[in-house]
Write a structure and sequence with these properties.
The protein is an alpha+beta fold. It has a domain of about 190 residues. The chain has five helices and ten strands. A four-stranded mixed β-sheet has the order 3-2-1-4. It has a four-stranded antiparallel β-sheet with strand order 7-8-9-10. It is elongated and about 90 Å long. The relative contact order is 0.10.
Length: about 280
């Protein structure tokens, strides 16, 4: 009887270690699983490590990129200035040719050129009224489009020898030629007001107002000029003994572009640049 009990105890004891072994195995598996997951997160592929190194920039490469950008900027800035200069010159030339065509048409229809004012130091002239056409009534001249009116006393601002406009229709049964409109599609920026109340033709590319010297000085200053504001670029016109077109007329506009005076004229296809 005693021997039998001992065998049973031994069997019972032998079964306990198997349970412990299972527990230890599960613990080992947990450690192995954590170790495996951490090892998988590491980039163990040599080719992938080389790719990461290739994607990185060195200091020399960055300096080369900055140098290339500086060279490109130095090339782009002059090109941008040239484009701006060409744009302003082209706009002024188109405006001048439109006025030139109107003057030629005036001469064809009337047989003489519009009167000029070469003795005026600023070349202020009556082209706006002559090319627009006017009607006079009771000493008041009104443009055919009705945009402006001036009286006979104001016209003297264009010169002592000018007492009226040639291209005008008079009342009272006058048998002279009726006034005609020779210039069309004038932009508001192409017409400017003088202190005297008269209007003149100007270029739409204005002069820089902060410059001390102005083609037509404003009313401020000493002595005050004839213009209401600075920045006007008048259409200059000479038909009396022109120096550049002896058998025709001289017509030009001076614009200020990038620190230089650019003269757009009807006697040269090239722009005459003055460094001042």
């Amino acid at each position: 009887m005693k021997s039998v009990k001992r065998e049973r105890r031994q069997e019972t004891v032998e079964t306990v270690p198997s349970v412990a072994d299972v527990g230890s195995t599960s613990l080992k598996r947990g450690v192995n699983e954590r170790r495996t997951s951490s090892e998988d997160a590491r980039p163990c592929d040599p080719q992938q490590s080389t790719l990461y190194a290739q994607l990185a920039f060195t200091l020399i490469e960055l300096l080369v990129v900055v140098a290339i950008m500086a060279v490109l900027a130095s090339l782009i800035i002059p090109i941008t200035g040239a484009v701006t200069r060409h744009k302003l010159r082209s706009r002024t030339r188109v405006e001048l040719r439109s006025i030139e065509s109107a003057i030629v048409d005036y001469k064809t229809k009337k047989g003489y050129y519009p009167p000029d004012n070469p003795k005026n130091r600023y070349f202020l002239n009556s082209l706006y009224y002559e090319l627009s056409g006017t009607m006079v009534s009771n000493g008041v001249y009104t443009t055919l489009d009705g945009n402006t009116s001036v009286n006979a006393s104001q016209i003297g601002g264009f010169g002592a020898n000018i007492s009226g406009f040639m291209n005008t229709t008079k009342g009272g049964g006058d048998e002279g030629m009726a006034a005609q409109k020779f210039i069309r599609d004038l932009k508001p920026a192409q017409v400017a007001d003088l202190k005297s109340g008269l209007k003149i033709l100007v270029g739409s590319v204005g002069w820089e107002q902060n410059l001390p010297w102005q083609p037509v000085p404003p009313t401020t200053g000493s002595p005050p000029g004839p213009a209401l504001k600075a920045g006007l670029t008048p259409v200059c016109y000479v038909s009396t003994n022109p120096s550049n077109n002896p058998n025709s007329f001289d017509l030009w506009i001076d614009i200020y572009v990038q620190g230089k005076t650019n003269r757009i004229c009807n006697w040269s296809d090239d722009v005459i640049v003055n460094p001042h």
